[in-house]
Amino acid sequence: MSERVLVKGTEAIGEAAVRAGCRLFFGYPITPQNELPEYMSKRMPEVGGTFLQTESEVATINMVYGAACTGTRVMTSTSSPGFSLMQEGVSYMACAQLPAVLVNVVRGGPGLGDIQPSQGDYWQATKGGGHGDYKLIVLAPSTVQEAVDLTYLAFDLADEYRNPVLIIADGVIGQMMEPVTFPEFRDLNTLPKHESWALTGADGREKHIVVSFDIDPYVLEKMNLELVEKFKRIEAKEKRWEEYKLDDAEIVITAFGTVARIAKSVVEQARREGIKVGLFRPITLWPFPYERLEEIAKGKKLIFDVEMNMGQMLEDVKLAVKDHAPVEYYGRLGGVVPTPDEILQALKSKLGR
Amino acid sequence: MAFEVILKKPESLTQKEFTYCPGCTHGIIHRLVAEVIDELGIREKTIAVAPIGCSVFAYQFFNTDATVAAHGRAPAVATGMKRARPDLYVFTYQGDGDLAAIGTAEIIHAANRGEKITTIFVNNAIYGMTGGQMAPTTLLGMKTTTTPYGRSAENDGYPLHVAEVIKEARGVAFLARTKVNTPQDVVKTKKAIKKAFLAQIKGLGFGMVEVLSTCPTNWGIDPVSALKWLEEHMVPEYPLGVFVDKVGDEQ
Ligand SMILES: Cc1ncc(C[n+]2csc(CCOP(=O)(O)OP(=O)(O)O)c2C)c(N)n1
Ligand code: SF4
Question: Where is the Thiamine pyrophosphate enzyme TPP-binding domain (chain B) (predicted)?
Fold first, then answer.
């Protein structure tokens, strides 16, 4: 099953989820991610799974919560306004330590915004989004193949850490067709059963409860500290990033997802003009690879952060770089995708060229 | 001397003491649900979904696997569970703020999909947990902490008749409205709850019982008067009855 096939990003994510053993998908239509639920509505019955179109994103995330309570692999996908509506449920899931895979195909915002590709939900994705102290594991693919691989991985991470995992994409990755190699189908019998906590009926055992709640602040603080411990473990183990032409680079572009693809062209073009540029691309937006970026920043002429938002990852880049190198930012907002040319121009003007 | 146990706590209740106020009928309704689960022999295959409201602690009281849903979302949570594990029995236990205000969409759509879950809907005409504010089911003229001059149709709209709304949904397999202020009514309520579970067990569709309940604390009257007040004021507004019954009588 390792032949390469040409697929669209959204459908690739769906097929990867099916192969990861996901047999439950809940979703509510919103552009630009409709191809994913549409794909699942066709695919789930073929593999004995369930697709349900819900009455709202609020209902969706709570169905995901319910399914996850039983220890079953479950997924949903949405786009920005829909993800905003889900935040209460996401916070509940994080506190109750429920595994699930969520996809946000980010569109231009704030508000109703538009339906063009954007990275405007970086803060929402990485800094909480809902109420209370929690983190999601946030994966940001920049190719269709990577979307497949990260989706497959997302289910394992969710199960391992009992935490929701968020895949952040945008309309470019969602709509793009690329050849990919799909991973093998997981043998459903090998999936984790979560016997120690899942709600499956108190059959010959003590009852299980799954709650995001305790009326006693000292108990709730303990629950919080358990989460903090877990987040530290994730930070220690799960940071992922890509380094591109950094060996001799004097300038480092930082970018994720779609922009990182474009940035690769910028690197090539700049190098043809004799400017030694490389790319640092975080793949996990949380946990953010601070230490590696700090290492790389040492002695560099410039760290140039490029995003499709007002400079949201920029804050993490600055936290990483500290005063090892100057940091500049260039971005487009509202769903505008920057071209390699304009990024290069912006870079040159920062260099005073 | 040998003693015979003639009345014991249902197995489907834990040893934890109820935290409800004296005279609150949440406790009676809990016991009925537990007795039904015992009698149907499904305790070890049941998941309880507690709401946000005074019965948020139901997850501690029922001796079954249990969770607490976000405010109003219990039917969605139950849907997710049931779709993941159709072999289990899932019930929600919800107040009128939870089910009939913030969670209106979830309950209507769960009912309309014929979701094979059971809902126990406790209508006490007020928000208990948050201190006695107006509920969608608050009676006209009734004083609450947010209707200090009495609920006015002009400003606040009318008491919401949930069972009458839900009965239009074609996925409903059993639906009744009962009360628990007399022993006879307690018996009738138990029978209705049993049928609402049977609707699920037999795979017929969505089952719900709306139970008229008291909140002496926030109504500001003693427990005995509360039972009378329910009879005199709530029953005329919320007529009792069986609205849908696809379960039938042979059980
Ligand atoms: C999203 C959200 N909004 C508001 C609340 C606050 N809240 C807690 S309980 C409740 C009302 C519960 O009343 P009801 O459902 O009638 O149940 P009762 O307490 O009367 O049994 C409200 C508004 C909340 N917990 N979550
Ligand atoms: S506040 Fe009302 S509903 Fe809540 S436990 Fe007390 S009497 Fe019952």
Answer: 53-200
